[in-house]
Design goal:
By secondary structure, the chain is mainly beta. Strands 1-4-8-6 form a 4-stranded antiparallel sheet. It has a single domain, classed as Distorted Sandwich (Deoxyuridine 5'-Triphosphate Nucleotidohydrolase, Chain A).
Length: 144
């Protein structure tokens, strides 16, 4: 099944198309579209990308951390970009260690964008749910 392409609008100078680092990369790198360096600490900061997307219906787009930054203690929050959103894509960055500072330079790769197909599900109200061996046992109930 061939889907229409994701259309990308460059909103200002310095904005870059999302791009795969290698042929088999699952994520498209997102670059910071900033005019000056931005300091990132353990308080979340929004970093603009300078792009807006037109995502085909039925496609899920998620913003995810880059592993190279995560290794250094710099994460982005997971985010979902809905198919009907046409505003600028912003990435929320923060450091995981108090006192750790990371400087984002213009054009730095700051996150990745991963696409998937949405499951064709619906939601319905139920008075009772079916029984399972696990039942309502939650976090950590299946082992370490």
């Amino acid at each position: 099944m061939q889907l229409p392409p994701v259309r990308v609008q460059l909103l200002r100078d310095g904005a870059r198309l999302p791009a795969r680092a290698t042929e088999l990369s699952s994520g498209f790198d997102l670059a910071a579209c900033i005019s000056a360096p931005v300091k990132v600490t353990n308080s979340p900061v929004l970093i603009p990308t300078g792009i807006a997307l037109q995502i085909p219906p039925g496609v899920d787009a998620q913003v995810r951390p880059r592993s190279g930054l995560a290794r250094r203690g710099v994460l982005c929050t997971f985010g979902t970009i809905d198919a009907d959103y046409r505003g600028e894509l912003l990435v929320t960055l923060y450091t995981v260690t108090p006192g750790l500072t990371y400087i984002v330079e213009p054009g730095d790769r700051i996150a990745q964008l991963v696409f998937g197909l949405l499951a064709p599900v619906s939601v319905e109200l139920a008075e009772v749910l079916s029984h399972t061996a696990r039942g309502a046992a939650g976090h950590g109930s299946t082992g370490r």
